[in-house]
Amino acid sequence: MEIVLSQIKKRFGDLQAVKTLSFTVKQGEFVSLLGPSGCGKTTLLRMLAGIETPDSGEIAFGDTVIFSSEKNIMMPPQKRNIGMVFQDFALWPHMTVFENVAYSLRARKQKKQLQEKVMEALRSVQLEPLWERYPHQLSGGQQQRVAFARAIVNKPGIILLDEPLSALDATLRDDMRLLLQRLVKRMGMTAIYVTHDQSEAMAMSDRIVVMTKGEVIQMDTPEMIYHYPVNETVARFVGKGSIVTGTPCTQLGQSGFQLGQEAFLAARQAALFPQGKEVQTVIRPETVDVSLQQSDHRVTGKVETISYLGERYEGTLKIANTDVVLHFYSTKRIETGTTVYVRIHSDQIHVLQSKGGAYETA
Question: What are the backbone angles phi and psi of residue 133, rounded to the nearest 5°?
Answer without folding.
Answer: -80, 165
